[in-house]
């Protein structure tokens, strides 16, 4: 687990970097469009560490700004 990782600035321990990368790589996102509705991002269930990283790195804001 990513004990003590609260912000991206807190990832100073080089040993944590591969674990952080693995957690980010395993976040699954799909772009779904049903009939006449707008396309939207759908997320597979994330574990606690993935959700913290997603929030800490403001990835929702990044995806919100994506050109759909």
Instruction: Give the N-terminus to C-terminus distance in angstroms.
Output: 34 Å
Overall pLDDT score: 81
Number of domains: 1
Radius of gyration: 14 Å
> What does the overall shape look like?
elongated
Count the strands?
Answer: 2
Measured as a percent range, the helix fraction is 25-40%
Strand arrangement in the largest pleated sheet: 1-2
User: Beta-strand level of the residues, as a percent range?
Assistant: 5-15%
| Biggest sheet statistics | 2 strands, antiparallel
Structural class, by secondary structure, is: alpha+beta
Query: What is the helix/strand order?
Result: HEEHH
In brief:
This protein is α+β, with helices and mostly antiparallel strands and 68 residues long. Helices cover 35% and strands 12% of the residues. It has one domain (17-64).
Structure description:
This protein has 68 residues and is of the alpha+beta class. The protein has one domain. It is built from 3 helices and 2 strands, in the order H-E-E-H-H. It has a two-stranded antiparallel ribbon with strand order 1-2. Strand 1 and strand 2 form a beta hairpin. The radius of gyration is 14 Å and the shape is elongated. It starts with 16 loop residues before the first helix and ends with a helix.
């Amino acid at each position: 687990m990513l004990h003590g990782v609260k912000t991206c600035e807190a990832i100073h321990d080089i040993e944590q970097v591969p674990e952080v990368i693995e957690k980010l790589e395993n976040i699954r996102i799909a772009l779904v469009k049903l009939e006449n509705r707008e396309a939207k991002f759908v997320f597979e269930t994330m574990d606690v560490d993935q959700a913290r990283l997603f929030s800490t790195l403001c990835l929702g804001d990044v995806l919100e700004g994506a050109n759909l």
